[in-house]
Amino acid sequence: MEDDEKVKNEALQIIGQYHSLPRLIVFDLDYTLWPYYCECCFEDSTPYLYQQAKGILYALKEKQIDVAIASRSPTPEIARTFLENLGIKSMFVAEEIFSSWTHKTEHFQRIHRRTGIPFNSMLFFDDEDRNIQAVSKMGVTSIYVSNGVNLGALRQGLLEFSQKSESPRRVKRN
């Protein structure tokens, strides 16, 4: 297991390289923050995160970047219990955990209503391409992760967010 403090420090260095940062970073749960489907577990199962996830969350908290959850889990009670047992539940400003066929667009509408943060000020990590595609169309910088959130994904996400927000706005000319 990598040391959470070491990962946190590396994440802080990565975050420090960008002037333009998201106001909110949204994470999926299953196969993004943790390597399993929580509906295949019991509430008394022992949850665990991907190796670098906790250090990244601590770095975001230290940099005062809000974090939220968008999960299509059919077992929200198990997911919330796991977040509590992992000691990270209080880190999230919004938890939208419910079963849905909307590719998480409804999750993001609710997160936006709850936080007031515009979609173009959000960064999203998920392991399902269909969610990435749908949420990207809303204006959210969305990053596909195949092996959970890690420092490489964080770097890619912050780079894409920065490039998107710093690119000059196209002005319509008559």
Summarize the structure.
This protein is α/β, with parallel strands linked by helices. Helices cover 39% and strands 14% of the residues. The protein has six helices and five strands.
Explain what this protein looks like in three dimensions.
The protein has helices at 4-16, 53-62, 76-85, 105-115, 129-136, 151-166, and strands at residues 24-27, 66-71, 92-97, 122-126, 141-144. By secondary structure, it is of the alpha/beta class. It has a single domain (20-50, 64-145, 154-164), classed as Rossmann fold (3-Layer(aba) Sandwich). Strands 3-2-1-4-5 form a 5-stranded parallel sheet, sandwiched between helices. Helix 1 (4-16) packs across helix 2 and helix 1 runs parallel beside helix 6 (151-166).
CATH topology: Rossmann fold
> From the helix content, strand content and strand pairing, which structural class follows?
alpha/beta
- Amount of helix: 25-40%
- Alpha-carbon Rg, integer: 16 Å
Number of helices: 6
Low-confidence parts, pLDDT < 50 over ≥5 residues? none
Largest sheet: 5 strands, parallel
Beta strands, count: 5
CATH first level: which class?
A: Alpha Beta
Order of helices and strands: HEHEHEHEHEH
Q: Mind telling me which CATH architecture this is? A: 3-Layer(aba) Sandwich
CATH H-level superfamily title: HAD superfamily/HAD-like
Please state roughly what percent of the residues sit in beta strands, choosing from under 5%, 5-15%, 15-25%, 25-35%, 35-45% or over 45%: 5-15%
Report the average pLDDT across residues.
Answer: 93
First-last Cα distance: 59 Å
